[in-house]
Specification:
mainly beta; two-stranded antiparallel sheet; 1 helix
C-alpha cells in the first residue's frame, strides 16, 4: 500500500491506495494536493483520489519517504525526489513520467 500519514496525537491517513510494484521494474509515483483534493499517480496515471482537509504537520518537521513509524521500510530505491510549492497538473506529472531515464523535466 501507498499512503500518506500524519503522525502524533490524533494521527490520520488522508490517502491510501493499494500498490503492488513489480520487483526490478521502475515505477513513478506522484502525489499532489490541491486544497482538499489529493491525487495519487502511479506510472503517470491517476491511481486514487481522496478528499481530506487534514492539516499537515509543521513544514519544519522531518519528512520521511519510504518509511513509517509503524510498518517498516521501503524495499527499493528512491530517485529524483522533489517537493514542489504547488500541485502539479496531470500533464506535468505525465511529462515527468514520460522523461524516464532522460531525467525529470522541471515544470
Amino acid at each position: 500500500n501507498f499512503f500518506v500519514q500524519q503522525t502524533g496525537a490524533g494521527a490520520t491517513a488522508p490517502m491510501a491506495s493499494p500498490f503492488a510494484p513489480t520487483a526490478g521494474q521502475f515505477h513513478h509515483l506522484a502525489l499532489t494536493r490541491n486544497l482538499n483534493l489529493w491525487t495519487l499517480y502511479i506510472d503517470g496515471a491517476v491511481a486514487a483520489l481522496a478528499t481530506n482537509s487534514v492539516v499537515l504537520p509543521d513544514v519544519n518537521a522531518p519528512l520521511r519517504l519510504g518509511e513509517t513509524e509503524e510498518t517498516g521500510l521501503l524495499h527499493g530505491r528512491l530517485d529524483e525526489v522533489s517537493v514542489y510549492s504547488r500541485a502539479l497538473t496531470a500533464g506535468e506529472v505525465q511529462a515527468i513520467h514520460n522523461a524516464r531515464e532522460q531525467g525529470k523535466c522541471i515544470p
